[in-house]
Structure formats: C-alpha cells, structure tokens
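Hi V.,

Quick status before I head out on leave. The structure for the redesign project is tokenized and pasted below; the design run finished overnight.
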C-alpha cells in the first residue's frame, strides 16, 4: 500500500511538493486553513528569475529600512514597533550584509533557482498544465544614468562571479525593444534565461492536474496542534478533525514561525508584506515582464490582464490595502511606461512573503522529528523556487540522493 503524506499549506510550495511526492508514488493530501492558492502565491508578479541569486542582505537595504521608519512611502519599509523577535530578525539580517554572505548565499540560490527553471521547462514541455508561461527573459529598466551605473556594477558581479550574463540595452534602444516603454530612459538589462507566468493560473491549473492524479486538496482545514511521540509526529489536530499519515510536510509560508513553535523548533520567519494591482491590458501593453529597479516595481503582462507589484513592509499580518500604496505602484510605473495600467481595475491585493534573515529558504527535516519536513521561507522568490523545492522534498521523504545540495537550506541552522 502507498505511504501517505499530508502537506500543510496549499500555496505554490505545498502544490509543488504534492506534485513530486505523488509522482514518486505517495498518496498525498494537502490541507489549508483557507483557499488553495489563496495566500502569497495568488497575486504576486509571477517572474521566474534564475538570475536573482544575490541575497536581500545588502547594506543599502539596511539603510533603506532605517530611513523607512519615518517614511511611509518607502518601498522597503519597517513600521515602527517594539517587537524583540523583529529586532532579532534585523540584527541577524544586518550581520549578513557582507560580501562573504553574498557569495555563499548566492551560490546556494543559484543551485535551487537553476534547478527550478529546468523543472519548469520540463513541466511545460510535457504540457502538464497551462499557466501563460513565457520563457522570453526579464528586463530590468533603469531610469537614471546613476541607476544604470549602479546596476551595471551588480550585473558585472553576476557575470563574473556566477556566470549569469545579460544583454545590455541603451536608452535609445528601449522603445524599439518594447513599444510600451517611454523614450528618455537610461537603459536596461535583459536576463534571457528568466521567464514569467500568471501565478493564479499556475496554482489553479496545477492543482486541477494533481486532483486528476488522485491528490486530495482540503480547504478550510487549519492545523491547530501537532502531536508527537518518541521523535515522530503521530497526528495533526485540525479544526475539522484529526489527520494521520506516514510523513508530514509543512509548507505554511509566512505563518511558519507559529507552525514551527507547534513542532517544537525555531524557524524565525517574518511576514514581508507586498501589494499588487491587476488591470485590463493597457492599449500599449508591455510584451516583456519588467523590473523598474530604482522604484522596485515589477510589471507583468498576462494574456488577459496586466499586473504591477512591489513593496516590502515589515508590519506584521496587517491586511489593509491603503489606496496610497496602490496609487504609488501606478505613479512609479508612469516613469517608465506610456500607460502605467489598463482602464479597468480587476484586483488590488496584498500578500505576505515568508522572509528569512539569511535570504535562503528553509527545506529539510524538522529537527528532532523523523517524519516531518519543512518547506518554507522562500521570501521574494517562492514562485521561482517551487519546482526544485518540491522535488527536493520528495527526495528527502523518500531518503533518495538529492538533485541539489540541501545543506544551506537546513532548518537546523536556526537551532
Ligand atoms: C508583491 C509580491 C510580488 C512577488 N513576486 C514574485 C515573483 O515575481 N517571483 C517569485 O518567485 N516570487 C514572488 N513573490 C514571492 C512569492 O509570492 C512567495 O515566495 C510564495 O508565494 C510563497 O509561497 P508559499 O506556498 O510558501 O506561501 P503561501 O502561498 O502564502 O501559502 C501558504 C499557505 O499555508 C496556509 N497555512 C498557514 N498556516 C496554516 C495552518 N495552520 N493550517 C493550514 N494551512 C495553513 C495558508 O493559508 C496559505 O495558503 C512575490 C510576493 C509578493 C508579495
């Protein structure tokens, strides 16, 4: 009889874990306290960026965080609050704002991002499901000469240290490259190995495909407690009765700190809130996914819409969507695009990224529990890292050799 796995959390990470576990012959159930795909995996930008290897730990980001204490418009913002866990998080984050960490985290990120792109290519080539997959690169657009110079330094590091090369476009070339871009911009860098897709189409269609293969998805089933004996999880206490299995995977995104406490371990993840607006397609809609680096805003064209997304707020689980933040997305995009948004607003949204202080995900055995695996902490890149995470989790559960080195992602690093 097939061994049973229960996955807690039906975001992109839980869904990807379900895919690879079911493919490996396990009987899989995914439980979510809310809707499947309704968390952070719903309204994000959908950029699949293998080029994004550098950690968020940068002195410039630390300075931005400090300045933001008095600037509510800052894209990277810490709301003034007295919370020892958040202070500790920033302390640990700041300790890693150095070149040594950039190299070690960058190389770990490169392995998981690169493996994920290969997995996505295989999934879409095999027509497993549809998600508006566009493997045509990601364009970073710079508005000022200073921005261009700064980005060129980062691009040189990516090329020289990690072998990730971009095509540089001068300002005059941009409107011809993508007619949605305004004249007068300083330039851009096209990372051709990157891609983009529609996130909600991905979670919906991947889930449907898995249902057709026998995976069970149970919504409105929150995990309230976890029982264990002799170093093994024996059952989950949910608000719709108890659940038992042979193995348990915890993919509860930004809520993982609370889940880890139930598991008796420490996973110091903070929620990093972001916003997006989805509209109908502007008349001159970009053909490419773009990142407006100086404003930290992402833009993604879909077949049936257009999305702007950005911001990183450390403000706990505050679910409000201030209209000024949405306006700010459009105002920022106006510097780069003829039309920053389409005529009709289809959705405004916020979601919480699961942020780790070292900019690395948390994938591996729950410390002290032989049949529990954590798959969380995918910060700004969960859509990108999902397939390799799912494959890695299936390999860990099956105690098979892993396709990438899992050591840098081990949950034990927080013990
Ligand atoms: C504005 C914005 C733009 C982004 N753009 C990109 C991008 O372009 N590319 C990219 O790669 N990434 C991007 N991201 C990041 C990406 O969205 C996340 O990393 C990813 O969605 C995290 O997936 P997840 O499955 O871990 O979390 P989630 O999708 O949040 O799923 C976690 C699930 O766990 C469930 N859960 C929690 N606690 C319990 C419990 N006790 N019991 C049962 N269920 C529980 C929740 O209900 C939720 O459904 C962006 C994020 C934001 C906010």
């Amino acid at each position: 009889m097939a061994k049973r796995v229960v996955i807690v959390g039906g975001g992109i990470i839980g869904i990807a874990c379900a895919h690879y576990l079911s493919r490996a012959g396990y009987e899989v159930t995914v439980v979510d306290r809310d809707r499947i795909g309704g968390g952070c995996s719903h309204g994000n930008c959908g950029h699949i960026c293998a080029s994004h290897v550098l950690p968020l730990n940068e002195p410039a980001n630390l300075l931005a965080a400090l300045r933001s204490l008095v600037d509510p418009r800052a894209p990277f913002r810490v709301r003034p609050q007295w919370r020892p866990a958040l202070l500790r998080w920033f302390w640990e984050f700041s300790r890693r704002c150095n070149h040594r960490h950039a190299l070690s985290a960058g190389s770990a990120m490169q392995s998981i991002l690169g493996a994920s792109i290969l997995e996505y290519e295989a999934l879409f080539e095999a027509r497993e499901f549809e998600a508006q997959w566009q493997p045509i690169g990601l364009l970073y657009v710079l508005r000022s000469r200073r921005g261009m110079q700064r980005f060129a330094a980062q691009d040189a590091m990516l090329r020289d240290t990690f072998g990730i090369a971009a095509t540089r476009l001068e300002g005059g070339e941009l409107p011809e490259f993508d007619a949605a871009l305004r004249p007068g911009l300083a330039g851009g860098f096209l990372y051709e190995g990157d891609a983009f897709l529609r996130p909600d189409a991905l979670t919906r269609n991947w889930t449907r495909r898995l249902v057709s293969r026998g995976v069970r998805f149970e919504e409105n089933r929150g995990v309230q407690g976890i029982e264990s004996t002799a170093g093994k999880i024996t059952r989950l206490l949910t608000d719709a009765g108890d659940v038992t299995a042979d193995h348990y995977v915890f993919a509860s995104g930004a809520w993982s700190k609370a889940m880890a406490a139930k598991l008796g371990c420490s996973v110091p993840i903070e929620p990093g809130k972001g916003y997006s607006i989805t509209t109908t397609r502007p008349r001159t809609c970009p053909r490419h996914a773009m990142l407006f680096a100086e404003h930290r805003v992402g833009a993604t064209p879909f077949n049936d819409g257009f999305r702007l997304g950005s911001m990183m707020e450390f403000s706990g689980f505050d679910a409000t969507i201030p209209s000024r933040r949405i306006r700010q997305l459009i105002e920022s995009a106006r510097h780069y695009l003829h039309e920053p948004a389409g005529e009709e607003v289809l959705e405004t949204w916020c979601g919480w990224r699961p942020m780790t202080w070292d900019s690395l995900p948390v994938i591996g055995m729950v410390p002290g529990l032989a049949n529990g695996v954590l798959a969380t902490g995918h910060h700004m890149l969960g859509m990108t890292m999902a397939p390799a995470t799912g494959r890695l989790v299936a390999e860990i559960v099956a105690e098979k050799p892993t396709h990438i080195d899992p050591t840098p992602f081990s949950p034990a690093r927080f013990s």
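Above is the designed sequence. The chain has two domains: 1-57+98-132+196-269+356-415, 67-97+133-195+271-353.

G. will cover questions while I'm gone.

Best,
W.
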